[in-house]
Design a protein that fits this description.
Elements: E1 2-9, E2 14-20, H1 23-32, H2 39-42, E3 47-55, H3 58-71, H4 74-82, H5 87-101
Antiparallel strand pairs: 1-2, 1-3
Length: about 110
């Protein structure tokens, strides 16, 4: 399964959105970076604010990640964090994100 995860840096009051099959492992990796050319290395330490399952397909997780980032809205991200345990809310975001980017090659929208 692939998850969307949202990290927060209190140092810079910034959010970072990513996808991974293991958000806890990714958090450790983001906090371990020493190359300051990487975005997350500049604003360590990061705290995992939330994560939620998207799909077993990496392509769906990427679509949801892009959808969230394209909103360019701290308010939207904070709403995701606040409502990440609301299955209906998260499912509506996932469905909207996948539908907005178009169907896969089979012509069907995949959802797990």
């Amino acid at each position: 399964m692939y998850f969307i995860y949202i990290l927060h840096s209190s140092k810079a009051n910034k959010f970072y959105i990513g996808y991974s099959p293991n958000p806890f492992k990714r958090l450790k990796e983001h906090n371990a970076y020493t190359d300051k050319a990487k975005f997350t290395a500049k604003y360590q330490p990061w705290v995992l604010k939330c994560s939620f399952v998207v799909s077993e397909h990496i392509s769906d997780a990427l679509k949801v990640e892009r959808f969230i980032k394209k909103q360019k809205s701290k308010v939207f991200i904070e709403k995701l964090i606040k409502n990440h345990l609301d299955k209906n809310f998260i499912d509506s975001i996932i469905t909207k994100a996948i539908a907005k980017s178009g169907p896969d090659s089979s012509g069907l929208i995949r959802r797990s």
